Amino acid sequence: xxxxxxxxxxxxxxxxxxxxxxxxxxxxxxxxxxxxxxxxxxxxxxxxxxxxxxxxxxxxxxxxxxxxxxxxxxxxxxxxxxxxxxxxxxxxxxxxxxxxxxxxxxxxxxxxxxxxxxxxxxxxxxxxxxxxxxxxxxxxxxxxxx
Length: 146
Prior knowledge:
The protein has helices at 2-10, 17-29, 34-41, 50-62, 102-114, 134-145; strands at residues 31-33, 67-70, 76-79, 86-90, 95-99, 127-131. By secondary structure, it is of the alpha+beta class.
């Protein structure tokens, strides 16, 4: 709890009960949309609104506590893990799973730094691997064949 309060304070924000609850929920979920957070908090905080949750999530993004992830279903997801890592995106259920491979990121960054990107300054690299779980892939492949 103190670690969360410290992180929020370091962003220049007050560690309100709602902000703490939202960040704790993001830690539990890992990758979540604002709707996912609402669903997880509605019982404990029945008066909390979608707008409040979305605004808090955005303020966490602005100060580096979360990262935005756009999904293929045009829904915004938030990621509590802000370090370099890839994602496995399951297109059947629009879920993310972290894929950690520090060596891969070193190679990608080294390669890109050796390239002439013109007047473009590279800040970060995001890697999204899109597919399906093997059992879900069978369902997707059957739908595609029809």
